[in-house]
Amino acid sequence: MKTILNVIWLIFAGLWLALAYVAAGIICCVLIITIPFGIAAFRIAGYALWPFGRTVADKPSAGAWSTIGNVIWLLVAGIWLALGHVVTAIPLFISIIGIPLGIANLKMIPISLMPLGKDIVPVSRA
């Protein structure tokens, strides 16, 4: 079932969201100081391509720098990426098949707003 949902997700929302995260990652990798943001964006792009069967977990080693970085990310890119999740979730809720996809899309908003200090793990490991 996860594979079927992931394929449907990839066609209707995943590809576009992953491209947005890759674009944010490339922009962040332009400057040396923002490379951690770029790495986080690339990590989330992989999650946006194939989300079912994986979840977000807190890194135990995250500290104050992650919090400061998350505030910067929120102001620069997080709001726009979260808005992209909302915009792509609304049409998914129209059909019955799209409801789980819309819910998955809304579950990605917290990591799009604050990606640092988070890790994407299989559901069985969470």
Automatic annotation (TrEMBL):
<keyword id="KW-1133">Transmembrane helix</keyword>
<feature type="domain" description="Inner membrane component">
    <location>
        <begin position="68"/>
        <end position="118"/>
    </location>
</feature>
<feature type="transmembrane region" description="Helical">
    <location>
        <begin position="89"/>
        <end position="106"/>
    </location>
</feature>
<feature type="transmembrane region" description="Helical">
    <location>
        <begin position="62"/>
        <end position="83"/>
    </location>
</feature>
<dbReference type="Pfam" id="PF03733">
    <property type="entry name" value="YccF"/>
</dbReference>
<dbReference type="GO" id="GO:0005886">
    <property type="term" value="C:plasma membrane"/>
</dbReference>
<dbReference type="InterPro" id="IPR005185">
    <property type="entry name" value="YccF"/>
</dbReference>
<dbReference type="InterPro" id="IPR052937">
    <property type="entry name" value="Inner_membrane_protein"/>
</dbReference>
<dbReference type="InterPro" id="IPR031308">
    <property type="entry name" value="UCP028777"/>
</dbReference>
<protein>
    <submittedName>
        <fullName>YccF domain-containing protein</fullName>
    </submittedName>
</protein>
<feature type="transmembrane region" description="Helical">
    <location>
        <begin position="7"/>
        <end position="24"/>
    </location>
</feature>
<keyword id="KW-0812">Transmembrane</keyword>
<keyword id="KW-0472">Membrane</keyword>
<feature type="domain" description="Inner membrane component">
    <location>
        <begin position="4"/>
        <end position="54"/>
    </location>
</feature>
